[in-house]
Amino acid sequence: MGSADDDPARESARPAPSLPEGGTSLLRGGKDLQRGVASWYGPGFHGRTTANGEKFNMGEMTAAHKTLPFGTRVLVHNPRTGKEVVVRINDRGPYARGRVIDLSKAAAHALGMKTRGHDAVVLREVLPARAGQNMIASAETGANP
Q1: Which residues on adjacent β-strands are paired with residue 98?
Q2: CA–CA dist 9, 45 (Å, integer)
């Protein structure tokens, strides 16, 4: 799925971001899995069936990836903004050349990349947090607590 355009009329109907099941407060990033460019998709695909059979909700923290198993949770780090989110893989893509992941609109917004349409990212494995270590970004603010 391709990157969404930045139509201001569509912006006014933005749903509130939602956390992945289990929240993000007990997770941290592990080893790097992949680096590349992320894009996002939303309004044109909202409510359509994803590759795993569920309905796409642009307000959830989900993503499309070419090979990761459905249900895999991946920490997505945006080096430009320093923000991170955890997304759940529920779709296949991206189909745009040179892209490694297609994020939901909510995930792109939380990473600070929605208005750009695409940005460099690092995909990391998700590990349980240990006491005293930095937690990942919250979906509501996109900033580290």
Answers
A1: none
A2: 16
27-36 residue pLDDT tens: 667 899 999 9
Exposed e or buried b for every residue in 105-134, given b needs 16+ CB within 10 A? bbbbbbbbbbebebbebbbbebeebeeeee
Mean of per-residue pLDDT scores for the chain:
78
Residue 123's beta-bridge partner residues? Answer: 34, 76
Q: How confident is the model at residue 9 (pLDDT cuts 50, 70, 90)?
A: very low
Yes or no: say if 136 and 85 are a contact pair by the CB < 8 Å rule: yes
Q: Cα separation of 134 and 83, whole Å?
A: 12
CB atoms within 10 A of CB 12: 7
End-to-end, the C-alpha distance of the chain in Å comes to: 32
The per-residue pLDDT for range 74-121, each reduced to its tens digit, is 999 999 999 999 999 999 999 989 999 999 999 999 999 988 889 999
Q: CB neighbours (10 Å) of residue 4? A: 20
Tell me which H or E stretch contains 106.
helix 105-110
